[in-house]
Amino acid sequence: MGVGRTPRRLGGRAGAGILGGALGLAAAAQAAETAPGLHAHNAVGFAVLIGLTIFATILSLLYLRERARWARREHTLTAELAELRGAHDRAELLLGSEPQVVVTWDARGEPLVEGDVGITADGARPGSVRRVLAFGAWLVPGDAAALDSAVESLRGRGERFRRTVHTVQGRTIEAMGQAVGGQALLRLRELTGERRELVELRATLEEARHGLGALAGLLDAIPQPVWRRGRDGRLAWANAAYLAAAEAADVAQAVREGVELLERQAREEAERRRSRGIPGPLRVSAVVAGARRTLDVTEVATEAGTVGIAVDVSELERLRADLQRQMDANVRTLDQLPTAVAMFDARQQLIFHNAAYRQLWDLDPAFLEGQPLDGEILDTLRNARKLPEQADFRTWKSGVLAAYRAAEAQETWWHLPDGRTLRVLADPNPQGGLTYLFEDVSERVHLESRYNVLMQVQSETLDTLREPVAVFGTDGRLKFANRAFAQVWRIGPEMLEVQPHIDQVIAVCRTLSPAEEPWAQIREAVTGLVDARRGLACRLALADGTMLDCAAEPLPDGATLLTHIDVTASVNVERALTDKNEALERTTRLRDEFVHHVSYELRSPLTNIIGFTELLGDETVGALNPRQREYADHIMRSSAALLVIINDILDLASIDAGSMELTRERVDVQTTIAAAVRGIGDRLAEADIALVLDVPADIGSFVADGKRIRQILFNLLSNAVGFSAPGQQVRVCARKDGESLVLEVVDQGRGMPPEVMARVFERFESNTLGTRHRGVGLGLSIVRSFVELHGGRIDIASSPGAGTRVTCTFPVGDGEVHLAAAE
Q1: Hey, what's the signal peptide range on this chain (predicted)?
Q2: Is residue 35 part of a domain?
């Protein structure tokens, strides 16, 4: 500090001295310049001498002053050093007054160890500074780890600690750590004498305090009320269950107010039993949390008073009562069982038997009520010849009674002299004794025998069948397969004996029938887990051409029945019929195509013939004689008839091709009928046939294809005239029936038998029925096609000698819609 201030003071005064010297020199120089007669060089030298003298004087004064200040400073520091040495000596004295070590860490983290390092000695190994911080070398492992963690927290976060550790030699060391002046300090001190005893007592007290706290917490956690009374009998402490049962707020209130859980009479009875030394709990009734409960109270005397506990046995009592009721119910239930039941205790005495037991052996009720021994009952039954006949009854009886010493139930079968068979189950009781169950299985044995016989008959029957049959169980394994099944699929007897799984069976069968989908369906039917089991039908094709119809049907017991039927012959017939049908369809298509092409080829030359014949008939190319005119008329009529036939054929071809379209328009019914009648007028006159029209004047019109309606009427009238005799009449009727228009053509001709009516609408089906009428058989077929195109229907009624009635019904309800669509 003094060294720092000296240069500043020296600089200030020295500067002033130098400034004064400079001023003096300047003044001297000025005086030299102004003084007359002085030489300039002498003046400058004089000025410098004066300045140096002043400077030396000032430096001397400053030196004397600083020397005095440093002398005072040295005296102060000497006094402080002496004081610090005294403090150091006292610190070393205090540090060495008892075995202890002090460790400090500087800013760089280097430890400084001071004190008696002998506390780290371990047997033959003396203590050393390097062993002080190696806690694991001289402390027990648990304390060493805890002390390492505490020192780490002290150095890292400045957390102070104080704990007691133990050396390997059994000495007790007090370790204390704290932060002092920004440094970490660790003090290790060996405890001896009273101080060690005090620390041990403190640890014991702390341990006892923790134990009492844990015990109190445990007592508070249990659901049974626990309390402690003083020597005066007053309540001194109670757990949480006691407070809840007595409805007290806390322990202090319960102790202060003397809240009691038990009534006075119960407490007095407990005191009396305790004073007389009567062991066991006292069962009392008390109000617990507002409800009446049954308690088992146990109080024990101690040096400071008594402690007690109350166990709630209300549920136990209820369960005991329920158990008794259940036992009574079980007894009543056992009495209703058809199985004979008898129970014997550990002394082999009869303690229970039901009604079926009495009926089975027909024993005296008084004898059974006397609780006889099991051996006595066996002797009584043997004397009455009701037990199985035995050559050595004594040995047999010993074997029966050995069931009392068995660990598990034993099952035997008794064949009684009267032909009955009993299944006897001897079940040892856990508390000692034995329970007998006698079940009369005579009927079951008989039924089982009959069942086995029926199963053998069924197996033999299925084995004789020529159809393959197999049964798969619920586990998917083959339970039964007849000889036909094994032969068809070539399954050997060794495979059938092991009951193969369905997957193994399919693997063998697929070598003969490789199709995958049918076998996947069969496997699903056998092993599939579905809510509702359904049957399966599929077809299997074998490599050799055999066709099998396979059926899988679920059985009531969960199994699956798999059957095969050889349908190779029927499949071959079906295949032949299919091929024949396809051939017929191809023939029909060829016929239709032939007719279509031929009709078109005939129509063009026929049109030319008709045209040239009309030219000849009009005599535009020259006059014709009567015979030529007659020939021309004949050609015209024949050509016109042929054109009608060709047009009919073309119409049928268009209908078959689906290209026929109706030209819908509003058709007047009377006008259409009149046009059709004009077309047939010549034939009516030539055949001397009368035509009767029954058409109302107000019948009106309907939407249809007028050309096709006229063609329908023309064909019907042509048929009627062709099959009518001279002098008969043909009647045409028309009427509206609701939403329908009905057109009828009725003749009085020969009529048709049923076999002809069945084929009347077929194409190229022509029947003269003894008349001169000839046709290609297309008229009625064309009529039916046109009627059906209009959405109507045609009906025919006829019988031999009664004429024929043909009725065509056309819908007229949606005529406006059809007309709007056509427009």
Answers
A1: 1-31
A2: no
